[in-house]
Amino acid sequence: MTEPQTHHPNPSGLKRVAVLTSGGDAPGMNAAIRAVVRTATHNGIEVVGVRRGFQGLHEGDMALIGPRDVANTIQRGGTILLTARSHTWRSPEGRAKGAQNLRDWQVDGLIVIGGDGSFHGAHYLQQEHGFPVIGVPGTIDNDLYGTDHTIGYFTAVETALDAVDKLRDTGASHERIFVIEVMGRHAGHIALEVAVAGGAEEVFIPEDAKPVDGVVEIVKQSLAKGKASSIIIVAEGYPGGAEGVSKAIHEGTGQETRVSILGHIQRGGTPVSSDRVLASRLGEAAVYALMDGKSDVMVGRQGGGISHIPLHETWEKKKDVNRDLYRCAKTLSV
Ligand code: F6P
Predict the structure, then answer these.
(1) Domains in the chain: ranges and CATH
(2) Which of 99, 170, 196, 275 has the most crowded Cβ, counting Cβ within 10 A?
């Protein structure tokens, strides 16, 4: 086997890139920042780190960062660059100030690690100021079209699953029904994965607006089959959430239920290997995309390869949940 060629051609003459993290943090964002910094350095390109996402870009909160600044970060959750949901960036004036800061810092291209809200911000910067931007999918929700998975999703699933396993212990001991809410404002990807891996009785996701009342029959059947305790998974975005499902069960069956809303715990912690590897690959690919002269696209992973998807498609086209998993969850709850 020959050594891989590690230097990438630089036809666009890229000299300096900026990188920021934006929106909800996701485990693996640090691994992505590290990959950007080290890929750029390896190819003789400087990196400016922007703190607090687009808010920091607007305020000019920026500094040159190098490979040693990202040492010992690949295993850390959160984001060393900090993140924010910026209001100033929603106005053209706010974005103009940010574009000026990038020019003042002699930055040739911006890499934005975040979800669809962050990609909107990057897209407008490109449209209004012609500034080269590349998106890296970083969100636990896994809800971006054009990539099989997003950075942080795998870790969030493991964290939620660990909680489900623990709740199952106490649920079984008390012969209770546990209704567990996982994150996913508009998407049921985490919920479906956790439902199958956690052996749930039923799962509710925003992509399927089935009526909540159906759960009453499911719980009654489970009781008739001799199941004294059950786990029900509800995605945050399902109308009424876990509280609504729990109320329906209690009113329809008289059974004792408990609700557990896992919340932000799913966003923290050490990224699992799949998130670290995905982040490393996509951080590298983002720098290469700028060097190749690409802009206004997200780098993603599809079927083992790197994809480049126009940013607007990542939110305009809907990424469906895995319907096979949905079916499997139902089949196995017999
Ligand atoms: O987008 C990631 C996410 O964790 C969603 O699942 C959740 O609805 C939202 O962020 C919560 O956002 P915040 O941290 O601003 O409350």
Answers:
(1) 16-152+271-316 (3.40.50.450), 154-267 (3.40.50.460)
(2) 275
